[in-house]
Amino acid sequence: MTSPLIELRGIAKNFAGVRALDDVSLAIGRGEIHCLAGENGSGKSTLIKVISGVNQIDAGEILIEGERISHMTPRQAIALGVQVIYQDFSLFGNLTVAENLSIGAELRERRRLVSWRRMRKHAQEAVARLGVHLDLDAPVDSLPTSGRQLVAIARALMADPRLLIMDEPTTALTGREVAALFDVVRDIQSRGISVLFVSHKMREMLDISERLTVMRSGRIVAAGPIAEFDEASITRAMTGGDIAEEPYAWPGSPEHVAPLLDVRGLSVPGELNEVSFSIGAGEIVGVSGLLGAGRTELALALFGMRPHYAGTVRIDGEVVRLDSVQRAIAQRIAYVPEDRLTEGLFLSETIDRNIVVTSLDALSRGGLLRTGEMADAAARTIRKMSIATPTGNRPVMQLSGGNQQRVVIGRWLLQQPRLLILNGPTVGVDVGSKAGIHRAIRVLARERGLGVLMISDDVPELVGNCNRVLIMHRGELAAELPGVDPAQGGAGLRARESELSQRLKILA
Protein backbone atom coordinates (compact mmCIF):
# COMPACT_ATOMS: atom_id res chain seq x y z
CA MET A 1 0.00 0.00 0.00
CA THR A 2 1.13 3.56 -0.68
CA SER A 3 1.72 5.81 2.30
CA PRO A 4 -1.63 6.37 4.00
CA LEU A 5 -3.65 9.46 3.26
CA ILE A 6 -5.82 8.79 6.28
CA GLU A 7 -5.22 6.45 9.20
CA LEU A 8 -7.52 5.42 12.05
CA ARG A 9 -5.98 3.86 15.15
CA GLY A 10 -7.93 2.04 17.86
CA ILE A 11 -11.18 3.91 17.25
CA ALA A 12 -14.01 3.30 19.74
CA LYS A 13 -17.48 4.79 19.70
CA ASN A 14 -20.37 4.15 22.11
CA PHE A 15 -24.05 5.08 21.85
CA ALA A 16 -26.05 4.90 25.10
CA GLY A 17 -23.78 2.17 26.44
CA VAL A 18 -23.76 0.18 23.20
CA ARG A 19 -20.34 -0.13 21.56
CA ALA A 20 -20.78 0.68 17.85
CA LEU A 21 -17.03 0.68 17.08
CA ASP A 22 -14.53 -1.39 19.01
CA ASP A 23 -10.77 -0.89 18.50
CA VAL A 24 -11.09 -0.14 14.77
CA SER A 25 -7.86 0.54 12.90
CA LEU A 26 -7.87 1.34 9.18
CA ALA A 27 -5.50 2.95 6.69
CA ILE A 28 -6.37 4.26 3.21
CA GLY A 29 -3.50 4.95 0.81
CA ARG A 30 -3.20 7.91 -1.54
CA GLY A 31 -5.00 7.20 -4.80
CA GLU A 32 -6.28 3.87 -3.49
CA ILE A 33 -9.72 2.32 -4.01
CA HIS A 34 -10.44 0.73 -0.65
CA CYS A 35 -13.63 -1.24 -0.04
CA LEU A 36 -15.35 -1.27 3.35
CA ALA A 37 -17.72 -4.23 3.65
CA GLY A 38 -20.11 -5.54 6.25
CA GLU A 39 -23.72 -6.39 6.92
CA ASN A 40 -26.28 -3.84 8.08
CA GLY A 41 -25.45 -2.90 11.66
CA SER A 42 -21.80 -3.90 11.36
CA GLY A 43 -20.55 -0.37 12.04
CA LYS A 44 -19.85 0.85 8.50
CA SER A 45 -22.10 3.91 8.72
CA THR A 46 -20.73 4.89 12.13
CA LEU A 47 -17.18 4.65 10.78
CA ILE A 48 -18.08 6.87 7.82
CA LYS A 49 -19.49 9.45 10.22
CA VAL A 50 -16.31 9.31 12.30
CA ILE A 51 -14.13 9.98 9.25
CA SER A 52 -16.40 12.81 8.09
CA GLY A 53 -16.55 14.41 11.55
CA VAL A 54 -20.26 13.79 12.18
CA ASN A 55 -19.56 11.45 15.12
CA GLN A 56 -16.89 12.22 17.70
CA ILE A 57 -14.75 9.30 18.83
CA ASP A 58 -14.58 8.08 22.44
CA ALA A 59 -11.09 6.59 22.06
CA GLY A 60 -8.35 6.27 19.47
CA GLU A 61 -6.91 8.75 17.01
CA ILE A 62 -7.35 10.00 13.43
CA LEU A 63 -4.36 10.97 11.31
CA ILE A 64 -4.40 12.64 7.91
CA GLU A 65 -1.07 12.51 6.10
CA GLY A 66 0.54 11.69 9.43
CA GLU A 67 -0.93 14.66 11.27
CA ARG A 68 -3.13 13.86 14.26
CA ILE A 69 -6.56 15.48 14.17
CA SER A 70 -7.66 16.04 17.74
CA HIS A 71 -11.31 16.95 17.13
CA MET A 72 -12.65 16.21 13.66
CA THR A 73 -15.74 18.22 12.71
CA PRO A 74 -17.70 18.14 9.42
CA ARG A 75 -16.32 21.56 8.44
CA GLN A 76 -12.77 20.46 9.22
CA ALA A 77 -13.20 17.17 7.36
CA ILE A 78 -14.32 19.03 4.23
CA ALA A 79 -11.40 21.45 4.58
CA LEU A 80 -9.04 18.46 4.81
CA GLY A 81 -10.47 17.04 1.58
CA VAL A 82 -13.00 14.47 2.83
CA GLN A 83 -16.23 14.28 0.80
CA VAL A 84 -19.07 11.79 1.38
CA ILE A 85 -21.70 10.73 -1.16
CA TYR A 86 -24.47 9.17 0.89
CA GLN A 87 -26.83 6.49 -0.31
CA ASP A 88 -29.70 8.99 -0.76
CA PHE A 89 -27.32 11.44 -2.59
CA SER A 90 -28.60 14.39 -0.45
CA LEU A 91 -29.65 16.41 -3.49
CA PHE A 92 -32.37 19.04 -3.88
CA GLY A 93 -34.85 17.28 -6.14
CA ASN A 94 -36.84 20.41 -7.02
CA LEU A 95 -33.72 22.27 -8.19
CA THR A 96 -31.96 21.87 -11.53
CA VAL A 97 -28.70 20.03 -12.06
CA ALA A 98 -26.87 23.37 -12.39
CA GLU A 99 -28.36 24.68 -9.15
CA ASN A 100 -27.44 21.52 -7.25
CA LEU A 101 -23.88 21.63 -8.54
CA SER A 102 -23.23 25.28 -7.78
CA ILE A 103 -25.12 25.84 -4.54
CA GLY A 104 -22.22 24.56 -2.42
CA ALA A 105 -19.77 26.98 -3.99
CA GLU A 106 -22.24 29.85 -3.56
CA LEU A 107 -22.58 29.07 0.14
CA ARG A 108 -18.82 28.60 0.68
CA GLU A 109 -18.16 31.97 -0.94
CA ARG A 110 -20.98 33.52 1.14
CA ARG A 111 -22.67 35.03 -1.89
CA ARG A 112 -25.68 37.13 -1.02
CA LEU A 113 -26.95 37.59 -4.58
CA VAL A 114 -27.42 34.87 -7.14
CA SER A 115 -25.66 35.14 -10.49
CA TRP A 116 -27.18 32.58 -12.82
CA ARG A 117 -24.34 33.01 -15.28
CA ARG A 118 -21.77 32.30 -12.57
CA MET A 119 -23.73 29.29 -11.29
CA ARG A 120 -24.02 27.83 -14.76
CA LYS A 121 -20.31 28.32 -15.37
CA HIS A 122 -19.51 26.44 -12.13
CA ALA A 123 -21.87 23.64 -13.16
CA GLN A 124 -20.35 23.35 -16.63
CA GLU A 125 -16.88 23.11 -15.10
CA ALA A 126 -18.04 20.37 -12.70
CA VAL A 127 -19.57 18.27 -15.47
CA ALA A 128 -16.51 18.76 -17.69
CA ARG A 129 -14.26 17.65 -14.84
CA LEU A 130 -16.25 14.43 -14.50
CA GLY A 131 -16.25 13.88 -18.25
CA VAL A 132 -19.96 13.07 -18.59
CA HIS A 133 -22.99 14.66 -20.22
CA LEU A 134 -25.75 16.03 -17.98
CA ASP A 135 -28.64 18.32 -18.85
CA LEU A 136 -27.90 21.27 -16.59
CA ASP A 137 -31.46 22.59 -16.86
CA ALA A 138 -33.18 19.32 -15.91
CA PRO A 139 -34.74 19.07 -12.42
CA VAL A 140 -32.79 16.49 -10.44
CA ASP A 141 -36.00 14.60 -9.64
CA SER A 142 -36.48 13.96 -13.36
CA LEU A 143 -33.16 12.11 -13.67
CA PRO A 144 -32.74 8.35 -13.37
CA THR A 145 -30.85 7.05 -10.34
CA SER A 146 -27.60 6.84 -12.30
CA GLY A 147 -27.98 10.48 -13.36
CA ARG A 148 -28.59 11.67 -9.80
CA GLN A 149 -25.53 9.77 -8.70
CA LEU A 150 -23.40 11.51 -11.32
CA VAL A 151 -24.68 14.85 -10.05
CA ALA A 152 -23.66 13.89 -6.51
CA ILE A 153 -20.19 12.81 -7.68
CA ALA A 154 -19.70 15.95 -9.77
CA ARG A 155 -20.72 18.11 -6.80
CA ALA A 156 -18.25 16.31 -4.53
CA LEU A 157 -15.41 16.77 -7.03
CA MET A 158 -16.01 20.53 -7.07
CA ALA A 159 -14.58 20.63 -3.53
CA ASP A 160 -11.24 19.15 -4.75
CA PRO A 161 -11.43 16.11 -2.44
CA ARG A 162 -8.50 13.96 -1.44
CA LEU A 163 -10.78 11.21 -0.11
CA LEU A 164 -14.15 10.43 -1.67
CA ILE A 165 -16.41 8.15 0.42
CA MET A 166 -19.16 6.42 -1.57
CA ASP A 167 -21.83 4.84 0.64
CA GLU A 168 -23.58 1.91 -1.09
CA PRO A 169 -23.32 3.65 -4.48
CA THR A 170 -24.69 0.77 -6.58
CA THR A 171 -27.82 -0.04 -4.55
CA ALA A 172 -30.34 1.05 -7.19
CA LEU A 173 -28.22 0.69 -10.35
CA THR A 174 -28.52 -1.84 -13.14
CA GLY A 175 -25.52 -3.93 -14.18
CA ARG A 176 -24.81 -1.63 -17.10
CA GLU A 177 -24.96 1.45 -14.87
CA VAL A 178 -22.63 -0.19 -12.34
CA ALA A 179 -20.04 -0.76 -15.08
CA ALA A 180 -20.29 2.90 -16.11
CA LEU A 181 -19.94 4.00 -12.48
CA PHE A 182 -16.82 1.89 -12.07
CA ASP A 183 -15.28 3.64 -15.09
CA VAL A 184 -15.95 6.97 -13.36
CA VAL A 185 -14.44 5.73 -10.09
CA ARG A 186 -11.28 4.52 -11.82
CA ASP A 187 -10.97 7.87 -13.58
CA ILE A 188 -11.25 9.61 -10.20
CA GLN A 189 -8.51 7.32 -8.87
CA SER A 190 -6.27 8.20 -11.83
CA ARG A 191 -6.26 11.79 -10.56
CA GLY A 192 -4.74 10.70 -7.26
CA ILE A 193 -7.99 10.84 -5.30
CA SER A 194 -8.54 8.06 -2.74
CA VAL A 195 -11.91 6.30 -2.77
CA LEU A 196 -13.53 4.49 0.14
CA PHE A 197 -16.15 2.30 -1.53
CA VAL A 198 -18.71 1.06 1.01
CA SER A 199 -20.66 -1.99 -0.11
CA HIS A 200 -22.03 -5.42 0.75
CA LYS A 201 -22.03 -6.73 -2.85
CA MET A 202 -19.18 -9.17 -3.05
CA ARG A 203 -18.64 -9.28 -6.79
CA GLU A 204 -18.46 -5.51 -6.94
CA MET A 205 -15.89 -5.48 -4.15
CA LEU A 206 -13.74 -7.96 -6.03
CA ASP A 207 -14.05 -5.96 -9.24
CA ILE A 208 -13.41 -2.40 -8.10
CA SER A 209 -11.24 -2.43 -4.98
CA GLU A 210 -7.51 -2.84 -4.36
CA ARG A 211 -7.81 -3.47 -0.64
CA LEU A 212 -10.69 -4.73 1.45
CA THR A 213 -11.71 -4.25 5.09
CA VAL A 214 -14.60 -6.30 6.49
CA MET A 215 -16.51 -5.28 9.62
CA ARG A 216 -18.79 -7.32 11.86
CA SER A 217 -20.40 -6.21 15.13
CA GLY A 218 -18.34 -3.02 15.27
CA ARG A 219 -14.96 -4.72 14.80
CA ILE A 220 -12.68 -5.36 11.86
CA VAL A 221 -12.65 -9.10 11.24
CA ALA A 222 -10.69 -9.27 7.99
CA ALA A 223 -8.47 -6.92 5.98
CA GLY A 224 -5.91 -7.10 3.21
CA PRO A 225 -5.30 -6.90 -0.56
CA ILE A 226 -8.33 -7.90 -2.59
CA ALA A 227 -6.33 -10.71 -4.21
CA GLU A 228 -6.45 -12.54 -0.86
CA PHE A 229 -10.27 -12.79 -0.95
CA ASP A 230 -12.98 -14.57 -2.89
CA GLU A 231 -16.77 -14.53 -2.52
CA ALA A 232 -16.82 -17.37 -0.02
CA SER A 233 -14.21 -15.81 2.25
CA ILE A 234 -15.92 -12.41 2.16
CA THR A 235 -19.28 -14.00 2.99
CA ARG A 236 -17.68 -15.91 5.87
CA ALA A 237 -16.09 -12.75 7.24
CA MET A 238 -19.29 -10.70 6.94
CA THR A 239 -21.70 -13.26 8.42
CA GLY A 240 -19.47 -15.46 10.57
CA GLY A 241 -20.44 -18.57 8.58
CA ASP A 242 -20.97 -20.04 5.13
CA ILE A 243 -24.16 -19.61 3.10
CA ALA A 244 -25.02 -22.77 1.19
CA GLU A 245 -25.55 -22.54 -2.57
CA GLU A 246 -28.50 -24.64 -3.63
CA PRO A 247 -30.61 -24.03 -6.76
CA TYR A 248 -34.36 -23.87 -6.28
CA ALA A 249 -36.08 -27.09 -7.26
CA TRP A 250 -39.70 -26.60 -8.38
CA PRO A 251 -41.76 -29.65 -7.40
CA GLY A 252 -44.01 -29.34 -10.46
CA SER A 253 -43.42 -29.29 -14.22
CA PRO A 254 -45.00 -27.30 -17.08
CA GLU A 255 -46.14 -30.50 -18.80
CA HIS A 256 -48.16 -31.84 -15.88
CA VAL A 257 -49.32 -28.77 -13.93
CA ALA A 258 -51.98 -26.31 -15.13
CA PRO A 259 -50.60 -22.76 -14.90
CA LEU A 260 -51.58 -20.57 -12.00
CA LEU A 261 -50.98 -17.50 -14.17
CA ASP A 262 -51.19 -17.57 -17.96
CA VAL A 263 -50.44 -14.39 -19.91
CA ARG A 264 -50.99 -14.22 -23.68
CA GLY A 265 -50.14 -11.27 -25.93
CA LEU A 266 -49.90 -8.71 -23.14
CA SER A 267 -49.28 -5.32 -24.73
CA VAL A 268 -49.09 -1.74 -23.44
CA PRO A 269 -48.40 1.00 -26.02
CA GLY A 270 -44.79 2.14 -25.78
CA GLU A 271 -43.97 -0.33 -22.98
CA LEU A 272 -44.88 -3.97 -23.70
CA ASN A 273 -45.39 -5.86 -26.95
CA GLU A 274 -47.04 -9.28 -27.19
CA VAL A 275 -45.62 -10.70 -23.94
CA SER A 276 -46.65 -14.31 -23.28
CA PHE A 277 -45.61 -16.60 -20.42
CA SER A 278 -47.02 -18.68 -17.59
CA ILE A 279 -46.27 -19.41 -13.93
CA GLY A 280 -47.25 -22.60 -12.14
CA ALA A 281 -48.21 -22.99 -8.49
CA GLY A 282 -45.00 -23.14 -6.44
CA GLU A 283 -42.92 -21.89 -9.35
CA ILE A 284 -40.42 -19.03 -9.05
CA VAL A 285 -39.91 -17.38 -12.45
CA GLY A 286 -37.23 -14.73 -12.87
CA VAL A 287 -37.28 -11.70 -15.15
CA SER A 288 -34.06 -10.06 -16.29
CA GLY A 289 -33.16 -7.40 -18.82
CA LEU A 290 -31.45 -4.06 -19.27
CA LEU A 291 -32.79 -0.73 -18.06
CA GLY A 292 -35.92 0.09 -20.08
CA ALA A 293 -36.51 -3.51 -21.11
CA GLY A 294 -40.07 -3.44 -19.74
CA ARG A 295 -39.59 -5.47 -16.54
CA THR A 296 -41.22 -3.00 -14.16
CA GLU A 297 -43.92 -2.22 -16.72
CA LEU A 298 -44.77 -5.93 -16.81
CA ALA A 299 -45.14 -5.96 -13.03
CA LEU A 300 -47.31 -2.84 -13.05
CA ALA A 301 -49.57 -4.27 -15.76
CA LEU A 302 -50.15 -7.44 -13.74
CA PHE A 303 -50.88 -5.35 -10.64
CA GLY A 304 -53.60 -3.36 -12.36
CA MET A 305 -51.62 -0.18 -12.97
CA ARG A 306 -51.82 -0.32 -16.76
CA PRO A 307 -55.63 -0.52 -17.15
CA HIS A 308 -55.71 -0.10 -20.93
CA TYR A 309 -53.51 -3.10 -21.71
CA ALA A 310 -54.31 -5.51 -24.55
CA GLY A 311 -54.05 -9.28 -24.33
CA THR A 312 -55.42 -12.01 -22.12
CA VAL A 313 -54.61 -12.85 -18.50
CA ARG A 314 -55.88 -16.07 -16.95
CA ILE A 315 -55.64 -17.08 -13.30
CA ASP A 316 -56.38 -20.72 -12.58
CA GLY A 317 -57.72 -20.99 -16.14
CA GLU A 318 -60.24 -18.15 -15.75
CA VAL A 319 -59.90 -14.96 -17.80
CA VAL A 320 -59.55 -11.91 -15.52
CA ARG A 321 -59.40 -8.21 -16.25
CA LEU A 322 -56.66 -6.48 -14.23
CA ASP A 323 -57.67 -2.87 -14.90
CA SER A 324 -57.18 -1.58 -11.37
CA VAL A 325 -55.08 -2.29 -8.31
CA GLN A 326 -58.25 -3.25 -6.44
CA ARG A 327 -59.09 -5.93 -9.00
CA ALA A 328 -55.54 -7.26 -8.90
CA ILE A 329 -55.69 -7.51 -5.11
CA ALA A 330 -59.12 -9.17 -5.37
CA GLN A 331 -57.44 -11.81 -7.57
CA ARG A 332 -54.89 -12.24 -4.74
CA ILE A 333 -52.00 -10.70 -6.62
CA ALA A 334 -49.40 -8.98 -4.43
CA TYR A 335 -46.70 -6.56 -5.57
CA VAL A 336 -43.52 -5.62 -3.67
CA PRO A 337 -42.02 -2.52 -5.38
CA GLU A 338 -38.33 -1.94 -5.96
CA ASP A 339 -38.16 1.27 -3.92
CA ARG A 340 -39.50 0.20 -0.54
CA LEU A 341 -38.69 3.56 1.08
CA THR A 342 -40.89 5.72 -1.16
CA GLU A 343 -43.35 3.15 -2.55
CA GLY A 344 -43.55 0.35 0.00
CA LEU A 345 -43.44 1.76 3.53
CA PHE A 346 -44.92 4.45 5.76
CA LEU A 347 -41.59 5.24 7.38
CA SER A 348 -42.85 7.24 10.34
CA GLU A 349 -45.47 4.62 11.26
CA THR A 350 -44.87 1.55 13.39
CA ILE A 351 -43.89 -1.87 12.14
CA ASP A 352 -47.30 -3.23 13.20
CA ARG A 353 -49.21 -0.59 11.26
CA ASN A 354 -47.10 -1.11 8.14
CA ILE A 355 -47.83 -4.84 8.30
CA VAL A 356 -51.62 -4.62 8.64
CA VAL A 357 -52.28 -1.61 6.39
CA THR A 358 -53.43 -3.72 3.40
CA SER A 359 -55.62 -5.95 5.59
CA LEU A 360 -57.73 -3.34 7.36
CA ASP A 361 -60.99 -4.52 5.76
CA ALA A 362 -60.45 -8.06 7.01
CA LEU A 363 -59.45 -6.77 10.46
CA SER A 364 -62.49 -4.55 10.98
CA ARG A 365 -66.16 -5.05 11.72
CA GLY A 366 -68.90 -2.48 11.31
CA GLY A 367 -66.35 0.16 10.37
CA LEU A 368 -64.38 -0.36 13.60
CA LEU A 369 -60.87 -1.80 13.66
CA ARG A 370 -60.38 -4.89 15.83
CA THR A 371 -57.16 -3.81 17.51
CA GLY A 372 -56.57 -7.16 19.22
CA GLU A 373 -56.71 -9.05 15.93
CA MET A 374 -54.49 -6.42 14.31
CA ALA A 375 -51.86 -6.90 17.00
CA ASP A 376 -52.07 -10.70 16.69
CA ALA A 377 -51.74 -10.56 12.89
CA ALA A 378 -48.71 -8.27 13.09
CA ALA A 379 -47.06 -10.45 15.76
CA ARG A 380 -47.58 -13.61 13.65
CA THR A 381 -46.04 -11.89 10.63
CA ILE A 382 -43.04 -10.70 12.64
CA ARG A 383 -42.43 -14.29 13.78
CA LYS A 384 -42.99 -15.92 10.37
CA MET A 385 -40.79 -13.43 8.51
CA SER A 386 -38.12 -13.43 11.27
CA ILE A 387 -38.20 -9.63 11.51
CA ALA A 388 -35.50 -8.65 13.99
CA THR A 389 -37.25 -6.33 16.43
CA PRO A 390 -38.12 -6.54 20.14
CA THR A 391 -41.51 -4.92 19.48
CA GLY A 392 -43.81 -4.06 16.61
CA ASN A 393 -44.37 -0.60 18.08
CA ARG A 394 -41.06 0.76 16.78
CA PRO A 395 -41.09 3.07 13.73
CA VAL A 396 -40.33 0.96 10.68
CA MET A 397 -37.61 3.44 9.67
CA GLN A 398 -35.49 2.12 12.56
CA LEU A 399 -35.20 -1.32 10.96
CA SER A 400 -32.34 -2.41 8.71
CA GLY A 401 -32.98 -2.65 4.98
CA GLY A 402 -33.40 -6.42 5.11
CA ASN A 403 -35.96 -6.24 7.91
CA GLN A 404 -37.85 -3.46 6.15
CA GLN A 405 -38.14 -5.68 3.09
CA ARG A 406 -39.47 -8.51 5.26
CA VAL A 407 -42.15 -6.12 6.54
CA VAL A 408 -43.27 -5.32 2.98
CA ILE A 409 -43.35 -8.98 1.96
CA GLY A 410 -45.03 -10.05 5.20
CA ARG A 411 -47.73 -7.40 4.76
CA TRP A 412 -48.86 -8.98 1.50
CA LEU A 413 -48.67 -12.51 2.85
CA LEU A 414 -51.49 -11.60 5.26
CA GLN A 415 -53.65 -11.37 2.12
CA GLN A 416 -52.95 -15.04 1.33
CA PRO A 417 -51.84 -14.18 -2.24
CA ARG A 418 -51.68 -16.67 -5.09
CA LEU A 419 -49.16 -14.63 -7.08
CA LEU A 420 -46.33 -12.59 -5.52
CA ILE A 421 -44.53 -10.11 -7.78
CA LEU A 422 -41.14 -9.09 -6.40
CA ASN A 423 -39.41 -6.16 -8.08
CA GLY A 424 -35.81 -6.05 -6.84
CA PRO A 425 -36.56 -8.16 -3.74
CA THR A 426 -33.17 -7.63 -2.09
CA VAL A 427 -32.06 -4.20 -3.35
CA GLY A 428 -29.94 -2.56 -0.62
CA VAL A 429 -30.00 -5.69 1.56
CA ASP A 430 -26.85 -7.26 3.01
CA VAL A 431 -25.75 -10.80 2.21
CA GLY A 432 -27.07 -12.41 5.39
CA SER A 433 -30.49 -10.76 5.19
CA LYS A 434 -30.62 -11.53 1.48
CA ALA A 435 -30.16 -15.24 2.15
CA GLY A 436 -32.92 -15.11 4.77
CA ILE A 437 -35.36 -13.44 2.35
CA HIS A 438 -34.53 -15.99 -0.33
CA ARG A 439 -35.20 -18.85 2.09
CA ALA A 440 -38.55 -17.35 3.06
CA ILE A 441 -39.61 -16.97 -0.59
CA ARG A 442 -38.64 -20.56 -1.39
CA VAL A 443 -40.58 -21.92 1.58
CA LEU A 444 -43.67 -19.93 0.59
CA ALA A 445 -43.49 -21.18 -2.99
CA ARG A 446 -42.79 -24.81 -2.13
CA GLU A 447 -45.12 -25.22 0.86
CA ARG A 448 -47.95 -22.80 0.02
CA GLY A 449 -47.93 -23.26 -3.74
CA LEU A 450 -47.37 -19.51 -4.17
CA GLY A 451 -46.46 -18.42 -7.69
CA VAL A 452 -43.58 -15.92 -7.69
CA LEU A 453 -42.43 -13.51 -10.40
CA MET A 454 -38.97 -12.26 -9.37
CA ILE A 455 -37.64 -9.21 -11.23
CA SER A 456 -33.98 -8.46 -10.53
CA ASP A 457 -30.69 -7.09 -11.85
CA ASP A 458 -28.83 -9.50 -9.56
CA VAL A 459 -27.80 -12.41 -11.81
CA PRO A 460 -26.83 -14.79 -8.94
CA GLU A 461 -30.14 -14.02 -7.23
CA LEU A 462 -32.13 -14.99 -10.31
CA VAL A 463 -30.13 -18.10 -11.17
CA GLY A 464 -30.04 -19.36 -7.59
CA ASN A 465 -33.73 -18.90 -6.81
CA CYS A 466 -35.65 -19.30 -10.06
CA ASN A 467 -36.49 -22.49 -11.90
CA ARG A 468 -36.34 -20.47 -15.12
CA VAL A 469 -35.48 -16.91 -16.14
CA LEU A 470 -37.22 -14.77 -18.79
CA ILE A 471 -35.05 -12.19 -20.55
CA MET A 472 -36.79 -9.02 -21.71
CA HIS A 473 -35.61 -6.55 -24.33
CA ARG A 474 -37.43 -3.44 -25.51
CA GLY A 475 -40.74 -4.56 -24.11
CA GLU A 476 -40.62 -8.08 -25.51
CA LEU A 477 -39.53 -11.49 -24.26
CA ALA A 478 -36.22 -12.14 -25.99
CA ALA A 479 -35.23 -15.51 -24.47
CA GLU A 480 -35.87 -18.00 -21.67
CA LEU A 481 -33.19 -19.84 -19.69
CA PRO A 482 -34.01 -23.04 -17.80
CA GLY A 483 -33.11 -23.48 -14.16
CA VAL A 484 -30.11 -25.32 -12.77
CA ASP A 485 -30.32 -28.99 -11.83
CA PRO A 486 -29.76 -29.13 -8.05
CA ALA A 487 -27.39 -32.05 -8.62
CA GLN A 488 -25.02 -29.67 -10.41
CA GLY A 489 -24.67 -27.48 -7.30
CA GLY A 490 -22.38 -24.47 -7.32
CA ALA A 491 -20.71 -25.38 -10.63
CA GLY A 492 -24.08 -25.40 -12.38
CA LEU A 493 -24.98 -22.05 -10.83
CA ARG A 494 -21.73 -20.44 -12.00
CA ALA A 495 -22.19 -21.75 -15.54
CA ARG A 496 -25.78 -20.49 -15.79
CA GLU A 497 -24.82 -17.12 -14.27
CA SER A 498 -22.15 -16.77 -16.93
CA GLU A 499 -24.66 -17.66 -19.64
CA LEU A 500 -27.23 -15.13 -18.41
CA SER A 501 -24.61 -12.39 -18.06
CA GLN A 502 -23.41 -13.06 -21.59
CA ARG A 503 -26.97 -12.88 -22.97
CA LEU A 504 -27.46 -9.50 -21.29
CA LYS A 505 -24.16 -8.19 -22.70
CA ILE A 506 -25.26 -9.18 -26.20
CA LEU A 507 -28.52 -7.25 -25.77
CA ALA A 508 -26.57 -4.20 -24.60
Explain what you see.
This protein has 508 residues and is an alpha/beta fold. It contains 17 helices and 22 strands. It has helices spanning 44-51, 74-79, 97-108, 116-130, 145-157, 175-190, 202-208, 231-239, 295-302, 325-330, 340-344, 351-356, 371-384, 401-413, 431-448, 459-465, 489-507, and strands at 4-15, 18-29, 33-38, 59-64, 67-69, 82-85, 163-167, 194-199, 211-216, 219-225, 259-268, 272-280, 284-289, 310-315, 318-320, 333-336, 364-365, 368-369, 419-423, 451-455, 468-473, 476-482. The strands form five sheets. The chain has a six-stranded mixed beta sheet, sandwiched between helices. A hairpin with a 2-residue loop joins strand 9 and strand 10 (219-225). The protein is globular, with a radius of gyration of 24 Å. The two termini are 36 Å apart.
Low-confidence stretches: none
In spatial order, strands of the major sheet run: 6-7-8-3-9-10
What fraction of residues sit in β-strands? Answer: 25-35%
Helical content band: 25-40%
Span between termini: 36 Å
Based on Cα principal axes, name the global outline. globular
Structural class: alpha/beta
Can you give the mean pLDDT? Answer: 88
Query: Helix count?
Result: 17
Give the beta-strand count. Answer: 22
* Rg from Cα: 24 Å
Oligomer: single chain
Q: The biggest beta sheet, please?
A: 6 strands, mixed
Provide a brief overview of the structure.
The protein has 508 residues and is of the alpha/beta class. It starts with a strand and ends with a helix.
List keywords for this structure.
508 residues, alpha/beta, 6-stranded mixed β-sheet, 17 helices
